[in-house]
């Protein structure tokens, strides 16, 4: 077995950004086919309910291509069935040809989810599952509110809202139902066979195939990682399963890499077998500036982010306001291969403006005339993407860097 491949943080950042669709200029158009290729390249796009400007999945895709339009994703997801919505580590939009692996996941986790939902909400929901399925089969797609006794009168009023809503989520998380579309941000559920195209739901993957695919496909998109990072990418398997797979395939489907860190000594990690060639082919990321959504996949693993980008980040939504370092929902700012700051911004719909409350540069970063022009250009793009007319900067919006104690 040869020595681990040495990787600098700069090369590691360039590779990661490239693998996750941030390694080329975002000033480009996307056809529907290009968008599908981008999502497949990334693996999935996370969905989240918070909407300070646009939903997370819309901003994640827009940050990779300024020509992206939400109606493209809607076509692929709701009209063509090329994508489906379910869970990785959280709710996400995923290519439908990956669905056989989710079918195995559903089988693997059905009992555990039933137990978890019973502990959270009581076991009554299990008695509702057959009735929920029968109702959807007879009446078509529904929202959870359709099962509320306050909103359904007459013959359907026997529904108990809480257990039936839990049954909907459980049936979705275990594969009997699928999300056909969303209204606003509310999921519209239908029977899986009416949502997922037939070729993708014929046969679930075997568990050994799930482990193999999960590790190989995660390394394709991560470049390198610990067993926990590899397992956590899709959240299908355990870290122990990922470690056993890596050890069994070392020297063939996996190599080892020594990856420099901004936080100290290099980390010895498992890596894709073509890592050296991939590093040699990757060009430096474009120098432009772009604002990232907090749920961007590059930001997801905070320890990995800190080690490779030297950027300490958390979402402070659940932090009491007096204890926040920055703000409720703050967006990181990427320039080239560096995260240079963060911005507190939100749509003020009544005023038809994008409100900029604060920008914090990272220590050692200054916002001179050139960087300010690039920031204003990016804010103008964000304003347009959010369907707003003006920018509004609060007094004192350019703050001093926050220096950690």
Query: What proportion of the residues is helical, as a percent range?
Result: 25-40%
Extended strand count? 15
| Main sheet attributes: strand count, strand direction, barrel closure | 5 strands, mixed
The whole-angstrom Rg is: 23 Å
Strand content: 15-25%
H/E element sequence? EHHEHHEEHHEHEEHEHHEEHEHEEEHE
By DSSP (H or I, 4+ residues per run), the number of helices equals 13
Structural class determined from secondary elements: alpha+beta
Distance between the termini: 43 Å
Based on Cα principal axes, name the global outline.
globular
Unreliable segments of 5+ consecutive residues: 151-161
- Neighbour order of strands in the largest sheet: 11-12-13-14-15
Question: If you average the pLDDT, what whole number results?
Answer: 94
